[in-house]
Design brief:
Layout: H1 2-8, H2 12-29, H3 32-48, H4 52-69, H5 72-88, H6 92-109, H7 112-128, H8 132-148, H9 152-168, H10 172-188, H11 192-208, H12 212-228, H13 232-248, H14 252-269, H15 272-288, H16 292-309, H17 312-328, H18 332-349, H19 352-368, H20 372-389, H21 392-408, H22 412-429, H23 432-448, H24 452-469, H25 472-488, H26 492-509, H27 512-528, H28 532-549, H29 552-568, H30 572-589, H31 592-608, H32 612-629, H33 632-649, H34 654-673, H35 679-689, H36 691-703, H37 707-717, H38 720-730, H39 746-752
Helix pairs in contact: 1-2, 2-3, 3-4, 3-5, 4-5, 5-6, 5-7, 6-7, 7-8, 7-9, 8-9, 9-10, 9-11, 10-11, 11-12, 11-13, 12-13, 13-14, 13-15, 14-15, 15-16, 15-17, 16-17, 17-18, 17-19, 18-19, 19-20, 19-21, 20-21, 21-22, 21-23, 22-23, 23-24, 23-25, 24-25, 25-26, 25-27, 26-27, 27-28, 27-29, ...
């Protein structure tokens, strides 16, 4: 009895010692039935200590005795215990075989309670296999038996298991209802342990819903009960749950402290499985903090424990976590190898949900490598899995990932459609966190489409949700996104203010990677203002952090930005050095997008030193890479630059230059058209972005003697908003177009608008 009491309090080492003493006595007096039961108890204790091979040995000893004495009920119970050991080991098919044996005996001897218990165990195996409909059916059978025999405790546990299935399916409201039923029963029958577990489950579902404050409150209720009843195991696991909530809130130091508390208890009570989970959770916190070396060390500790205790599922999970660390470090080949190790394990153990997750992770690696078609294929594989198993939350996440791929390919309408699909699912299942992310993604798409008012509105929706759910990390990210919108509008003071808000938050929560990103953004504002010395200082801060945390991708981006600054400071040698470094980083990590940007920078350096041929060669490399990656956006951005280079190479290539320029101007005109009705945005865009391409085209036309067309282009690039306002207000016909086939000369405009007087003077000092 004392051993059972210690076991209930998670004092497993003391329980083990008492059971061993009892076993010695029982062997001496020859009480076979009780000897078998004590072997069972020792097997359960060793399982709690994550010593699964020892657990298996004791359960096999118990099985031999009950078969010898003909105890069919004991035999069925022992098959169930062995099934649980194999379940812990991730050997799901063996677990199922033992549970099937236990079920057959329970039905044979009419043990309805044992039959119900075995249905629960089988449901749990199917749950681990990602076969959620089968899991649901078995748990419903178990629930029906518990209600039939009046087992209120079993009924409550049945509601918990069904809640778990709905949770995994992303049906969070259904999960919540089942957990609340279980909690009500635990309170009714005075089961304090069950009540605590009910609070844990509700905390987890609120976490999945993005309602982090509610999650925190429920986990704190569970913690109080765990401490009250002296259950150290529950106490330790609840610290881990609270740590996960704090991580989602962006409170990384608090997360670290709670995971360390959970780790200390797991070590104290000898719970190796929970110890491994704690190391993994700490690794994930360090990953979020940008402390990648620490993250790697903690995940490796978790991996060692998973291998030691034979937990194949935990081993696969940890390979995935290590893959994520290498992904953050831009060591994409290592990331891919670890994800592939994880994939092999989840396929081996039949974990369909885990298989879908790993395909998504591999898609992320190819995305980071700029291999968007491969990324798309892996995300589509992941999508097929989550749809197959009915995981609505996972389905919404993958739609968001596919939206990101289409965004990077410059296919903004497709990106918009996929992000809207993800948003619809997040709203449907009540996942506020993912809903906020989807609004942010849509805001970024609208920014790139030039629909700045829509971009601003969507980012503000994302911000409202981040503040509502207490997600400080998400709040900081959204301030950064709003800064980008104002940056695109050339409202640099507003951009700077939003970036500074974001910076304050990332520093507060200790996010070094995010801090580096914001320094880069602030550098971009000063760059756009022509304050190159200030830009340089911020870019150097971003570079220092990237090197410190081992962020190779961010390091390469910083080299590119510094290269651009040095061009404007007329330090072409320094610029070339930085772009060369960026090329080296991009090739090392396999980032084709970065490689294209770095070569574009080198083409600008060559152009600055009047090496036009080399400049054009670099630019053609950029176009080649962009075509290979399928990045239409990058190709469009390069048309103007190639046009500029062609102007300086030879008169014979002026036609080619004009073709590139007109394509670039057409893209700009499309963006301006989207600002109709918002004259402030139109003026801002025209003043900051609209003059250079028109001026360059005017020069080309003058050089070829097309002075009337040149005059028309000057008109095209000036007084645009005034002309459009007059057209709207007085119903005047608009004659302004970037299409040269529609040009018919300024004098014809004057002739057709007979009530207007024109005085046109254009002066520019051309040396």
């Amino acid at each position: 009895d004392l051993g059972d009491k210690y076991n209930a309090q998670s004092r497993f080492v003391e329980a083990k010692q008492l059971f061993k003493c009892a076993l010695t006595i029982l062997k001496r007096i020859g009480h076979k039935r009780k000897e078998a039961q004590t072997h069972q108890r020792l097997g359960n204790v060793y399982a709690s200590l994550s010593k699964y091979q020892k657990a298996k040995e004791y359960h096999e000893k118990a099985l031999a005795i009950v078969i010898e004495i003909g105890d069919r009920e004991g035999e069925g119970t022992t098959y169930g215990s062995l099934g649980t050991v194999f379940h812990f080991l991730g050997e799901y098919q063996k677990a199922k075989e033992y549970y099937d044996k236990a079920l057959a005996i329970a039905i044979e001897i009419g043990a309805r309670g044992g039959e119900g218990t075995t249905y629960v165990n089988l449901g749990s195996v199917f749950h681990s296999l990602g076969e959620y409909q089968n899991a649901k059916e078995y748990h419903e059978k178990a629930l029906a038996i518990a209600i039939e025999i009046g087992d209120r405790g079993g009924e409550g546990r049945g509601y918990v298991h069904l809640g778990n299935v709905f949770h995994s399916l992303g049906e969070y409201q259904n999960a919540k209802e089942y957990y609340e039923k279980a909690l009500a029963i635990a309170i009714e029958i005075g089961d304090r342990g069950g009540e605590g577990r009910g609070y844990v489950h509700l905390g987890n579902v609120f976490h999945s819903l993005g309602e982090y404050q509610n999650a925190k409150e429920y986990h704190e209720e569970a913690l109080a009960i765990g401490i009250e009843i002296g259950d150290r195991r529950v106490e330790g696991k609840t610290y881990l749950n609270l740590g996960t909530v704090f991580r989602s809130l962006g409170e990384y130091q608090n997360a670290k402290e709670y995971h360390e508390k959970g780790l200390a208890i797991a070590i104290e009570i000898g719970d190796r499985s929970t110890e491994g989970k704690a190391y993994g959770n700490l690794g994930t916190v360090f990953d979020s903090l940008g402390e990648y070396q620490n993250a790697k060390e903690y995940h490796e500790k978790a991996l060692a424990i998973a291998i030691e205790i034979g937990d194949r599922g935990g081993e696969g999970l940890t390979y995935g976590n290590l893959g994520s660390v290498f992904h953050s470090l831009a060591e994409y080949q290592n990331a891919k190898e670890y994800y592939e190790k994880a994939l092999a394990i989840v396929i081996e153990i039949g974990d369909r949900g885990g298989e879908g997750t790993i395909y998504g992770n591999l898609g992320g690696v190819f995305y980071s490598l700029g291999e968007y078609q491969n990324a798309k294929e892996y995300y589509e594989k992941a999508l097929a899995f989550v749809i197959e198993i009915g995981d609505r939350g996972g389905e919404g996440t993958i739609y968001g990932n596919l939206g990101g791929v289409f965004y990077s390919l410059g296919e903004y309408q497709n990106a918009k459609e996929y992000h809207e699909k993800g948003l619809a699912i997040a709203i449907e299942i009540g996942d506020r966190s993912t809903e906020g992310n989807a609004y942010g993604n849509l805001g970024t798409v609208f920014d790139s489409l030039g629909e700045y008012q829509n971009a601003k509105e969507y980012h503000e929706k994302a911000l409202a949700i981040a503040i509502e759910i207490g997600d400080r990390g998400g709040e900081g990210l959204t301030y950064g996104n709003l800064g980008s919108v104002f940056h695109s509008l050339a409202e640099y003071q507003n951009a700077k203010e939003y970036y500074e808000k974001a910076l304050a938050i990332v520093i507060e929560i200790g996010d070094r990677g995010g801090e580096g990103t914001i320094y880069g953004n602030l550098g971009g504002v000063f760059y756009s203002l022509g304050e190159y010395q200030n830009a340089k200082e911020y870019y150097e801060k971003a570079l220092a952090i990237a090197i410190e945390i081992g962020g190779r991708s961010e390091e390469g981006a910083a080299y590119c930005r510094l290269g651009a600054v040095y061009i404007n400071l007329n330090k072409n040698r320094k610029a070339e050095e930085h772009f060369d470094k960026a090329v080296g980083v991009s090739i090392a990590i396999g980032d084709r997008e970065m490689e294209a940007i770095a070569f574009a920078g080198l083409s600008c350096v060559s152009d600055s030193v009047n090496d036009s041929q080399k400049a054009k060669e670099h630019c053609e490399k950029v176009l080649t890479i962009s075509r290979e990656c399928g990045n239409r956006k990058r190709q469009a951005e390069l048309y103007l630059h190639v046009g500029l280079l062609s102007q300086s190479i030879s008169q014979s290539e002026v036609v080619e230059a004009m073709e590139y320029l007109l394509q670039g101007i057409e893209k700009y005109e499309q963006i301006r058209t989207l600002q109709k009705g918002n004259s402030g945005f139109e003026i801002s865009l025209l003043e900051q972005r609209g003059t250079f391409p028109y001026k360059l085209l005017t020069h080309l036309l003058c050089d070829t003697g097309k002075f009337r067309d040149a005059l028309y282009v000057e008109e095209l690039g000036r007084a645009r908003v005034l002309a459009e306002l007059m057209a709207d207000k007085y119903s005047a016909e608009s004659h302004i177009s970037a299409n040269p086939r529609s040009w018919f000369g300024i004098e014809n405009i004057a002739r057709r608008e007979s009530n207007c007087v024109f005085l046109y003077i254009s002066y520019e000092d051309r040396q």
